[in-house]
Design brief:
Helix content is 42%, strand content 22%. The chain is of the alpha/beta class. Strands 1, 2, 3, 4, 5, 6, 7, 8, 9 and 10 form a 10-stranded mixed beta sheet that branches.
Length: 281
Amino acid sequence: MLEKIEMSGAVSHADRILIYGGEKVGKTTWAASVPGVLVVDLEGGLGRLVVPAVRPRCLEEFHVLLAELAAGTPEWSALAVDSLDRLEEMIWLAVCKREGWSTIESPGFGRGYVVAAEEWRKVLAGLDKIARTVILVGHAQIKTYSNPAGDDYARYELRLAKQAIALAKAWVDSMLFARIEDLVVEGKAKTGRRVIRTVHAGAWDAGSRWGLPDPLPLNYAAYAETRDPAVSDAIAAIQAITTVDELVAMMTQLKTAAPSLAAAIRDRAVARMADLKGGDK
């Protein structure tokens, strides 16, 4: 076995992203803005978005699509599946038809969901084979979280059967929660900015293997920038700075030595500057 030792840390697959959130928050728009994307539009959510799309009508057609992509279609460098809810419905329909069940709960004791989980594994294996960036789009639901360390509480989580949630979370590199921040100004609620949360919190499930900044603006360009190691390191450096003078000096130096990097982190620097000035008050 010693001759099989290899260095860890090298990612051997294309980016795997799951983005989920409430209705009309901008999840589909985010996925559709990925360069070179082909959208698997399972629920007709594209609206006026102009993007290449395909609409398989059943699980069998979905697998045929994955096989065709795996065989080689270089014009698309990314695949977005919109949405996981609808894909799960297709899986349940296929399982029920094969097993002769009227619903996924017909066999009782949760067995239907266990059988469906095997179909989910086949879907994820098919997505593996296409060797492209994959974006899975899902919807959020509010569920009570059983907290082993204290009182139970409500939080947002992916709207799928628990077996499917576990498989999807294990498969993706980044699970992103899209939301609109609520602001209270002079006692009145106002709509805030659209963001994606990249870190787990009590109110939502999220996380990333890449150590992404949190939050990020709800646009793919912001996400892509942070996946650049140089940008990630610079953002981490910004967050570690404790004085306005240090931040100004850092950005001045970057504008001269690495102007493109300075431009990429400008919004982060502005936000950090506001935080530091607020702390001085």
